[in-house]
Amino acid sequence: MSAISTLPDRAPAAPARRRPALSYELFPARSDVSFERLRTTIAALEQTAPDYVSVTSKTGQGNLGRVLEVTEHLLVATSLRPLVHLTSIGSTRAQLTAIVERLLDLGVRGILALRGDQPEGHDLDQDEVPFARPLVELVRAVEKERSASLAGGRLSVGVAAYPHCHPESPSAQHDLEVLMAKERAGADFAITQVFFDPCAYERLVGRARAAGITIPIVPGFVPATDPRRLARLAALSGVEAPRPLLHALETAADDAERRRIGVAHTVELAARVLDSGAPGLHLFTFNRHADALDVLETLDLDRWSTTTTGDSR
Fold first, then answer.
1. What is the four-CA torsion angle of 215, 87, 200, 236, rounded to 10 degrees?
2. Beta partners for 157?
3. In the predicted model, is pLDDT for residue 111 greater than 70?
4. Comparing 176 with 307, which gets the higher pLDDT?
5. How many CB atoms are located within 10 Å of the residue 236 CB?
6. Contact, 218 vs 282, CB < 8 A?
7. How far apart are CA 158 and CA 55, in angstroms?
8. How far, CA to CA in Å, does 70 sit from each of 31, 35, 76, 103, 108?
9. Is 272 exposed, middle or buried (0-12, 13-18, 19+ CB in 10 A)?
10. Are the CB atoms for 116 and 88 separated by under 8 Å?
């Protein structure tokens, strides 16, 4: 005879929740004083439990010491996982190999492989590793040689993607072919350069998937609170911020209003691409945590924490 349960019916299991990927970009400190400020920013960002924090480097590894300083701090004093930028331009294969090995020795397991900005007068033909694709191959070669010390683990290698044409690219199709080559060389994911039109990101993902590119394409955002910073970004990337946004920022009554305007614009942009299926977001912080945290709090990533059918893998 079976027992009759007097317990209430068990509610169906809630669907697994997964927050979209979250990451930040930091600049290494330029001095001991600015490093103390950077530690404060890192501590504030750590409270949001990002998946990783990227650490930029100058072309030619000109600030390698400072890059290693902040990387070691992240590994030793925090729970954060660093994604260290590695630029190939102006460096020999031997130099790049030594840097990758040093990063592995520190405990780094994430590298963002980039060509880097081309200095005026620099001849790429003189470089042993002139582009990101062979740099990805170099990182994978070092990984293979170190497979025993990695205990069978694997590095995570990221690359850049461009919703708008790279400043030196002849066409969007060329950018797509470059991204495909980087995936075939061993890239695991891509982070986009800054953009202000959600359609630009959606077109990039759509064309990438149609071409057979499968790696996740993570959108990159700058908290659009500083018109001077947006102007500098435009000069470097060729991507102009919308004129209405720039006008609103320039005519704002004070910094508080300027911040509200920029945060609201960034939140709307991020929400649009998350709605379209973006796998997460990467915030370029410029070592200012307050704006990034305002964006994150207003955005509320839990709204996208259930599985969706979107595909921006």
1. 180
2. 111
3. yes
4. 176
5. 12
6. yes
7. 13
8. 12, 8, 10, 12, 12
9. middle
10. yes
Would you call 153 exposed, middle or buried from its count of C-beta atoms within 10 A (0-12, 13-18, 19+)?
Answer: exposed
Strand partners, 233: none
How far CA 291 is from CA of 38, 142, 254, 270, in Å, comes to 15, 38, 15, 14
Residue 220: CA count within 13 A, CB half-sphere: 23
Q: Tokens 């305007």: give the residue.
A: 261
Nearest alpha-carbon partner for 127 in 176, 169, 94: 94
Number of CB atoms found within 10 A of residue 14's CB = 7
CA–CA gap between residue 26 and residue 55 (Å, rounded): 5
Distances (CA, A) of 286 to 58, 175, 223, 225: 14, 26, 9, 12
Q: What distance in Å separates the CA atoms of residue 36 and residue 182, rounded to the nearest whole number?
A: 36
DSSP 48: T
∠ Cα 181 184 187 (to 5°) = 95
* Global pTM value: 0.90
**pLDDT tens across 134-158, in order?**
999 999 999 999 988 888 788 999 9
- Report CA-CA distances (Å) from 293 to 85, 148, 251, 252, 283: 23, 40, 24, 21, 10
Tokens 């040093």 correspond to 102
CA distance 120 to 123: 9
Give the separation between CA 93 and CA 104, rounded to whole angstroms: 16
Nearest-angstrom CA–CA distance, 99 and 91: 10
